[in-house]
Design brief:
The complex is a heterodimer of chains A (420) and B (94). Chain A is of the alpha/beta class and 420 residues long. Helix content of chain A is 29%, strand content 22%. Chain B has a four-stranded antiparallel sheet with strand order 3-4-5-6, with no helix packed on it. In chain B, strands 1-2 form a two-stranded antiparallel ribbon. The mean pLDDT of chain B is 96. Chain B is globular. Classes of the chains: A alpha/beta (420), B mainly beta (94). At the A-B interface, helix 8 and helix 11 of A face strand 3 and helix 1 of B.
Chain lengths: 420, 94
């Protein structure tokens, strides 16, 4: 039974020495022999999918989430937590803004503080080309009803005082600012969705890796899964496995338009609050914000080759740090505490794939590349509706796998010319 | 950082190279005869395996030439690099 968080439960537990808190979600050792829907992948997107399935589509029946590692141990716990929706194309703006609207109010919905902090995301322009691209984004976003505004260098400096706008190597010619953008606590997002989904009856099975997908020999429809914890029968499978999606889809005989790359991030020693917002520089592949613990959280670009190693080259990190030191000279003597890598699945157009597949009963939500965290609530919400009805949710429809055959790409890769 | 052996220049550090995706994907001889699905497969569908991967690299800051490599995507270890006109080396047993 999940305890509702609040002043009363906190006061009661304070008096009892905090010995009464139960685990936040049920974690059955083994899966049941059969479910109606199985979500493969217990990251933020998979858990959000299970939560919205259980909450808004109760009729689908019994739901399980299978996670090969542990909840929040993959990309959900490895990213730099940036949230924004200022993408160029209307399809993307609709999808990411759907997520931003859900972020606002998510803590209350889940009864779990995900620490969503819309502190503003500022994207720096270092060249005339950057300026033209970002101004185009600002206009496109405004037409789509998404806030985004152009700042002069002086306004950018006022919004983020540590920024050196006269930086010789990377001069700041202006910036695009989305004030509703910001950050959230990534672990809390995974834990909050796990707790809320579990309370609605979803089985979350950790350390349960899928090793095969069983299909009906006649129609080809999925009939179940082989896992390291036994066979699970199920007529509907949602694969939400980020970097490992190609491996899972290959079990159903599908080749995907995906390549998996290492993406690295690092954090500094903690310091007092010094950095009020999120700053991104697409040109130099550096992203920076300050966590509530006081660490500077810095994201780099992807390594240049596909890999599942969850480790990348140190030259990629030093490239990001060199740029951070140029743009924020005050950070030059800070020490970095740790760095890590995650495996991101990128599509040719750098837009996600959400929807049905040629295999009946098999659904996929993947291809979020370097920027999936921001979309977690929206992605889960539209994917749950897609699985429940068997047809794409209207916001998800343009992101169908078929777009690579029809040619209707949503080319955010060309729009940004860099990683997101 | 990877240490990569260019078949022409020898071992050089990774920043001299650029990865160029999965190797041995042949452009269809008659593009007009392809179905949309065939063309999508040629352009976009990739194996993306966890294991041995045949891939192209280009020595952009060296000789500028493309070559192929056999690399394990779990360990990033290279088993071999080879020129486009050389036979494909076998996948290591272990």
């Amino acid at each position: 039974m999940t305890t509702r968080f609040g002043l009363l439960s906190l006061a009661r537990e304070a008096l009892r020495g905090h010995r009464g808190w139960a685990p936040q979600w049920r974690s059955p050792e083994r899966p049941q022999p059969a479910y109606d829907v199985v979500i493969v992948g217990g990251g933020g997107h998979g858990l959000a999918t299970a939560y919205y399935l259980a909450k808004e589509h109760r009729h689908v029946g019994r739901i399980a989430v299978l996670e090969k590692g542990w909840i929040g141990g993959g990309n959900t716990g490895r990213n730099t937590t940036i949230i924004r929706s200022n993408y160029l194309f209307p399809e993307s703006a609709a999808l990411y803004d759907h997520a931003v609207r859900l972020w606002d109010g998510l803590s209350r919905e889940l009864d779990y503080n995900v620490m969503f902090s819309p502190r503003g995301v500022m994207m720096l322009a270092h060249s005339v080309h950057d300026e033209q691209v970002f101004r185009r984004h600002v206009h496109a976003n405004r037409l789509d009803g998404v806030d985004n505004e152009w700042l002069t260098p002086a306004q950018a400096k006022a919004f983020c005082p540590p920024l050196d706008i006269a930086c010789a190597r990377y001069p700041v010619l202006g910036a695009a600012l989305q004030r509703r953008g910001g950050v959230a606590r990534h672990d809390a997002v995974a834990w909050g969705y796990a707790r809320a989904a579990s309370a609605l009856g979803v089985d979350i099975i950790q350390e349960c890796e899928v090793t095969g997908i069983a299909r009906d020999p006649r129609g080809g429809a999925v009939t179940g899964l082989e896992t390291t914890k036994g066979t699970v029968r199920c007529p509907r499978i949602g694969v939400v496995a980020a970097g490992s999606t190609s491996l899972l889809m290959a079990m159903a005989g599908l080749r995907m338009p995906l390549e998996s790359f290492p993406l690295q991030a690092l954090v500094s020693e903690p310091v007092k609050p010094v950095f009020p917002c999120v700053v991104m520089s697409n040109t130099v592949h550096a992203y920076i914000s300050q966590s509530d613990k006081g660490e500077l959280v810095i994201g780099a670009g992807t390594d240049g080759y596909n890999s599942y190693s969850q480790a990348g080259g140190v030259q990629v990190l030093s490239h990001a740090l060199e740029a951070v030191c140029e743009l924020f000279p005050t950070f030059r003597r800070m020490r970095m505490l740790r760095s890590w890598g995650g495996i991101v699945d990128t599509t040719p157009d750098r837009s996600p794939i959400i929807g049905t597949t040629p295999v009946p009963g098999l659904f996929v939500n993947c291809g979020w590349g370097t920027g999936g965290f921001k979309a977690t609530p929206g992605s889960g919400h539209v994917f749950a509706a897609t699985i429940a009805t068997g047809a794409p949710h209207p916001i998800a429809a343009p992101f169908a796998l078929e777009r690579f055959t029809t040619g209707r790409l949503i080319d955010e890769a060309a729009a940004a010319a860099v990683a997101h | 950082m990877l240490l990569i052996r260019c078949p022409w220049c020898g071992e050089r550090p990774e920043p001299e190279f650029r990865h160029a995706g999965e190797a041995h994907i042949a452009r269809p001889a008659d593009p007009a005869a392809q179905s949309d699905a065939d063309w999508a497969a040629y352009l976009y569908l990739r194996g993306n395996p966890r294991g041995w991967h045949r891939e192209r690299w280009r020595h952009v800051h060296g000789c500028g030439r493309f070559f192929n490599a056999l690399r394990h995507t779990g360990t990033d270890r290279f088993a071999a690099t080879y020129r486009p006109d050389e036979p494909r080396p076998d996948i290591p047993a272990a």
